[in-house]
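Self-study notes.
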Amino acid sequence: MTLSIQPRDKKPPRILIYGTPKVGKSTFGSLAPNPIFIQCEDGLAAIDSDSYPLATSFKQVLGYLGELATEAHDYKTLVVDSTDWLERLIHTQIAQENNVKQIDQIGYGKGYAMAIDLWRQYLDCLNYLRDERDMMIIQIAHAQIKKFENPETDSYDRYQIKMHDKASALLMEYSDIILFANHTVAVKKEQEGFSKRTRAVGSGDRYLFTDERPAFVAGNRYGLPEEIPFDKDGAYWNVIASHVPYFNNKGE
């Protein structure tokens, strides 16, 4: 599968994809146009894609980004896998610089404010790659179920990005497309004697969800379909290409 790309005046999209374990997030990145991975966790063993060695520090991640910014290459997509493990590297650096074991030992939430400064430094690097090297940005994250305090209703649980709230909000604000990847699950009620029991029934089908719902966070700036089949052959990239100006509408 190949995707044609329009001239530089059409900026490449910044995509954030998160979801349940083993749903195919890294595969999504590997099927993007000519990708290279920055690994912050060791999860590419079964995926054939170019990658830097596993990053063990935030400074190492910045070094990889610097190489992509200055050295000659033909990569069209940067995939960061994953942002929640990158967050661990950021928190470790903040803790070391402040002579504490954990970031939350820095009083009054100051450690997390320092972390936001490093996140902004990282995003500036991504923007340079996007603006000056014409690279699409894909950031991968894991999901967690957290209570959402909705001011208009009672609070309820939903899938959210597995990161500190301030960092998660910053990455979502940065992204043009936020995708939630999950298997479809139906709830079936069955009669058992005088009572009923409820059980989950899964078909195995996977979808990319592009608009926010009570159960999860998602969104996009391109009018993508609300649900895109997350199939194994990567046809979902054709759907994305048909809506994003960066790609020709003839994406194959």
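Second protein, same conventions, sequence then structure:
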Amino acid sequence: MKKVIVTGACGFIGTCLCRRLFEAGCRVTGIDNLSRAGSEINAEELKRSRQFTFVKADLSDTKAALRVFEEIGPADAVFHFAGQVAVTTSYVNRLNDFRGNAATGFNVIESVKRFSPGAYCVYASTNKVFGHIVVEKPVGLERPLDPCTPYGVSKAVGELYFTEYGRPPLGLSTCCFRQSCIYGHHQFGVEDQGWVAWFAIANLLGVPVTIYGDGKQVRDLLYIEDLVDLYLEAWEKRLTGVYPVGGGLPNAISLMEGIELIRTLTGRDYRELRKEPSRPGDQPYFVADLAWAKPAGLTWSPRTGCREGLGKMISWIRENEAGLRKLHRLA
């Protein structure tokens, strides 16, 4: 039975990966500080599996991180998702953002080096490490690292450490994915992060939605199960390097198009659509060029279109409406 460590295990992506790892017969140790809204709900679900061991820890604390990884011992794979996740928050609390992403990223990969050097390691990076993109064309491997927000910088620092530890002098097996807009079930989206889920949640719960900017910002949506497919194939083939990841051009939509599609799928009007000026660091356009996948030896490509994926996400929101109302204090 394979042994896997997942940091940020009770967040959106971590939870969905853990569920698939259970199906694959893996034993999973999930590490989380449960700071993210909704993470405790996901934690309770994961704890129902006998294949899951939960560790509550703050991985920005170096001593705590080293202790946890030493106690867990060698693993076959480590997936690092723990961190501060919002651009807006990174401007308000820069120290917390640094600790959550830069310090945590270093602590995790250093812990792997010391206590699990044979593990395959994945770092979930972000499209924000590319900075303010002004050219409206897909972003590929040639685009340089150029972060321009505190969040982009802190995530880039963690990514650079994972990349450096993957070079011959330190000798780990590391892969970083610069991820675009990921959405799907188990996502407790809020206004500051997870906009697709937030728009759907707000629509179904009757909460006003604020559009920052002109609503023409474009993102390529990637359904969570397609992302997990990528993680698992990358592990299987021990893919290394740094790659842009999203739904690609076939799944590129603007914010306003996303709002209208959600309205169509739910059959409900929004309670209110408000407009505010754009926020710092909001890229007007990001679409990942996925042409790297086949040359890298992968069979992976996104399989779930926006309409299908949003439909599945909306079904999950409806099934969990009571919990979401309580979380948003609407019960």
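Instructor comment on the second fold: The first strand starts at residue 3 and ends at 7.
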